[in-house]
Amino acid sequence: MAVQSTTLDRKIAERPPASLWRDALERLLKNRLAILGGIFVILLVLLAVVGPFITPYGYDQTDIAAVRANRGPANPGQAGHLLGTDILGRDLLSRLMDGARISMTVALVVQVTVLVIGVPIGAIAGWFGGRADNLLMRFTDIVYAFPDLLFIILLTVVFKDTWFGDAVDGLLLVFVAIGIVSWVGVARLVRGQMLSLKETEYVEAARAIGVPDRKIVTRHLLPNSIGPIIVAVTLGIPGAILAEALLAFIGIGANVPRASWGTLITEGQAWMSSEPHLLLFPAIAIALALLSFTFLGDGLRDALDPKLKGKQ
Amino acid sequence: MTATDDDRRVDPGSPAVAELPDAEKLPEAVSLETEEGRRLASQLADEKTRHARKLLEVRDLSTQFYTKDGIVHAVDRVNFELDYGETLGLVGESGCGKSVTALSLTRLVPDPPGKIVSGEIIFDGVDIMKLTNEEMRLLRGKRIGFIFQDPMTSLNPTLTIGFQIAESARLHLGLSNRASNDRAVELLSKVGIPRARDRMADYPHQFSGGMRQRVMIAIALACDPMLLLADEPTTALDVTIQAQILELIRSLSEEFGTAVILITHDLGIAAGMCHRVNVMYAGQIVETGVTDDLFENPQMPYAWGLLDSLPRLDEERGAKLRTIEGMPPDLLKIGDECRFSPRCPYSRDICHAEEPELTERDRPDHLARCHGTEPGRGWIQ
Amino acid sequence: MSAQPAYTPEPAAGNALVEAENIKIHFPITAGLFQRTVGAVRAVDDITFEIRKGETLGLVGESGCGKSTTGRALIRLRELTDGTVRFDGTDLTTLKRDQLRKMRRRMQIIFQDPYSSLNPRMTVGSIISEPIETHNLATGKAKLERVKELLALVGLNPNYTNRYPHEFSGGQRQRIGVARSLAVEPEFIVCDEPISALDVSIQAQVLNLLVELREQFGLTYLFIAHDLSVVRHISDRVGVMYLGKLVELGPPSAIYEAPAHPYTRALLSAVPIPDPRAERARKRVILTGDVPSPANPPSGCRFHTRCWLYEKLGRPENCRTEDPELRIVQPDHRAACHYAEDALQSDVGVAHMGAEPIRRKPFGAGPQAHKVAAVDDVPAALVTGTGAAGSATAEPDSASSDGDTTSRS
């Protein structure tokens, strides 16, 4: 059968191949709110990485002179402190930047933990089904039902004064603990994806061809579940940041003098009436971080959801 | 039924009442199954046209969709008429504009992005385009019934079907709760749902696909409409259930004298159900005629090719099907040419240079949009 | 009742490529916290038939009758609950994993939905080369050449290898699926409703392609469809399924002109015919009610709850109590009905056969069709890049068989 090069063929041939990822990126770039969120997230990450190196003060460096001069915490702009200092004369901006470091690390470590636990559990349950599915999902239910806070407190108590409990100023333990209680959602998501993708005709076609199971998972199932996983992970970050802040607020978290945003808020709370900036700036930092991750996540969801394709 | 029959006739907004005597309703004996029945039906229809106007007149209807890629000319200068009690087929492939035409008739085109940009739609003497939204809503529920392809999307899953049928009768006919419930039971048994009274309290998911479509028909007929718009009513159903539903639509439309616009991609359904057929292509009506004429002597190569590309149940194993090559045009960009010309094996220079009009063929009620079959100067014969 | 024996397959028939013997596929219904099995959907319930080398067996029936499950079972995409499937004499049900994988080169499947049957994250090239890689048929440049050859074979531009499925129309995607299944050079292809998701004018194109390929490679097809006209067009023999049972099997002339099962007759009478005259001439049997649930099928003959013949014969008792076997009613024609002989005498479902059908001049033939519009002639204005959006209105299907049109006219 002769194939003729038709106008249509040429037209298609002229266009660059458009993978779904490319299409998704194009859609994402058209979403202003998501771009705004993305830019702020990048800014935050940059700040967290290089910020502490460029500030003139360390997060634990005290400027007693400034406190003395002001008879209390320095106000924003005073004595070379852009956002002021706390009662010990520690520069608030530097402390916020270090806090950003903690928050970004929380985002990373917690979500990595979530992925490491959640994806395999969900994938195994969904792919094998039957007894394995039943067992894993009941386990997931139990984890889901267990009170998070209680579990984290128990962990901190158990690992107190071990290398794990003290690693990274005691933060690693907190991060991993948050991760351990947060993977349930991703596991369920991945299981659902596996279950529905397993039934698709292209997976059936692969089985008919004789493609080994391992390759079906890596080539067909995982690439098609990555979109929703990315979205879930991105949208899970605000929760993780908030959880860490909450734990810090009630006193579980970084060993002094390190302070996460949650710790700063706790400290700032005491000075709420006289020195509102001590509460205000950390609160704004958290709010902005949460919002930008949420915007970015929403944008990713809209961009990656193929159901929205062709609409608008 | 008598109360509602009367109610339908005595419509203050309808001056046609006086002009339309009993001929509006075909006698029970008339069956479209037989040759004779069809002749009788068309005679009756002829008498009606002498007495009164058409039920529906669509003139120069154009509906466009404004998308980020440009304007989609979904329906482009469509003209057609529908008699009282007539069944008209609107046939074409996906994207040809048949569904958008139906939505336009009831002003249900999603706006934005869609918009009816021009045209007149005279329904029972009333210009639909001039009605207020509220009037339009009343008209839709009361005079025009709908059946869609997927009944599940048009039935509310949280309400009993009894309530959903009775609601329409209550709202539009002003019946009491009790009377509307009785009417719902009556309609349910009429559409062939066994133990109708018991099933009033059931929810949509408790019905099978075919049964749900029956419920949809009951709702559509709740106010005894003059027009039933059926958009691919059986596409989601199995062939034996399809036969049930088509038979139901046919017998109910005969019984109540309801006109039907049947939108379908299945030429077989059109052949069995419709008095007349409009074939649509790329947003336009390209051929219209009495069903027999159109199927026997298609005057537009698209309709012709479509008919010839179908394998037939009553033919021996065939070697190769005749096909229409290529693809329908993009409705974003339409030029001044016959829209089928790029795929047409008969096209000549004039086809690419000038868009043909819908003009008469051998009979005054058989029209086609084709230079090649134009009487006198056409070259396809 | 006939004294003729129930049908038993001849295992050494010689020309049978696929033999299904008493196959049953039941899906468990589970309930409760511990997923206890409380029942079974009997999707396929004890059916026996064979597909001969080089023939196309059409399988028709309504949704839920088990025709797709049967098709998948024949190439062991579904595990059997009971029974055996032999492919060219080899019992597929007992094959080890590796043996089965080797066997998969010889049998393939084409799916209904051109949208869900192609992995959206893979290029057309990698979709078609997956079977080639899996069976180590070619590597490197030879692999690419083979992919291009396959694309050309199904009427697509060979340069499409780096494209993604969503850039194509339904008909083109279906061609990609066909190319994938041809990549392993199979002998047997299960076509599971391959054209029912396509638009009318595209259906004929894909159907023609399947017929051409069959002739070119001597393929054996199991052609599953609900459209009886399409099945008649393509099949050498036709099987009719109802509620997990094969109720009739025979050549098209028997099935379409003298069916011996009342269900087949009802189906035929329900199929719309694109011919108003034939439509008027037909004698319809409108089956009442819905298809019963395969989880709880009626006793005796499964069709008796909707059977018009059962009513006509005064509800004979054995229809309710005895499951009729698929028995030979005429040479090469089997039906599972106690009263097949009575069914044969009826004109239900075939009444339209007597009517003179509408005859039209064949489209695209005759001296008038002096010129065939090659798609090259499509003005650029009509062909826009159908990107992500807007492909619903534009159906850029391939102009694969331009050459054929030209030769015909």
| Rg from Cα of chain A | 24 Å
Largest sheet of chain B: 8 strands, mixed
How many distinct helices of chain B?
Answer: 15
Largest interface: B-C, 84 and 82 residues
Radius of gyration of chain B: 21 Å
What's the quick description here?
Chain B has 381 residues and is of the alpha/beta class.
Q: What key phrases describe this protein's structure?
A:
heterotrimer, B: alpha/beta, 8-stranded mixed beta sheet, disordered N terminus, C: 409 residues, alpha/beta, 12 strands, disordered C terminus
Write the layout of secondary structure elements.
The complex is a heterotrimer of chains A (312), B (381) and C (409).
Chain A (H helix, E strand, L loop, with lengths): L6 H8 L5 H10 L2 H23 L9 H7 L21 H37 L1 H16 L2 H11 L4 H4 L4 H12 L1 H15 L2 H9 L3 H37 L11 H10 L6 H28 L8
Chain B lengths: L1 H8 L6 H4 L15 H17 L4 E12 L2 E13 L4 E5 L6 H8 L8 E10 L2 E2 L5 H10 L1 E4 L3 H4 L6 H13 L3 H14 L5 H4 L9 H12 L6 E5 L7 H18 L2 E6 L2 H7 L2 E6 L2 E7 H6 L4 H8 L40 H5 L5 E2 L6 E2 L13
Parallel strand pairs in B: 3-8, 3-9, 6-7, 7-8
Antiparallel strand pairs in B: 1-2, 1-4, 4-5, 9-10, 10-12, 11-12
Helix pairs in contact in B: 7-8, 8-10, 10-11
Chain C lengths: L15 E16 L4 E17 L3 E5 L6 H8 L7 E6 L2 E2 L5 H7 L3 E4 L13 H11 L5 H14 L16 H13 L5 E5 L7 H18 L2 E6 L2 H7 L2 E6 L2 E6 L1 H6 L4 H9 L5 H6 L26 H5 L4 H5 L5 E4 L2 E3 L4 H6 L56 H7 L1
Parallel strand pairs in C: 3-8, 3-9, 6-7, 7-8
Antiparallel strand pairs in C: 1-2, 1-4, 4-5, 9-10, 10-12, 11-12
Helix pairs in contact in C: 3-4, 3-5, 4-5, 5-6
Structural summary, described in words:
The complex is a heterotrimer of chains A (312), B (381) and C (409). Chain A is mostly helical and 312 residues long. Chain A is 73% helix and 0% strand. Chain A has helices at residues 7-14, 20-29, 32-54, 64-70, 92-128, 130-145, 148-158, 163-166, 171-182, 184-198, 201-209, 213-249, 261-270, 277-304. In chain A, helix 10 (184-198) packs antiparallel against helix 12 (213-249) and helix 12 runs parallel beside helix 13. Helix content of chain B is 36%, strand content 19%. Chain B is built from 15 helices and 12 strands. In chain B, the strands form 2 sheets. Chain B has an 8-stranded mixed β-sheet with strand order 6-7-8-3-9-10-12-11, sandwiched between helices. The radius of gyration of chain C is 23 Å and the shape is globular. Chain C is an alpha/beta fold and 409 residues long. Mean pLDDT of chain C is 82; it is low at 1-13 and 366-409. Chain C is built from 14 helices and 12 strands. The chains are: A mainly alpha (312), B alpha/beta (381), C alpha/beta (409). Chains A and C meet through helix 1, helix 2, helix 11 and helix 12 of A and helix 2, strand 6, helix 3, helix 5 and helix 14 of C.
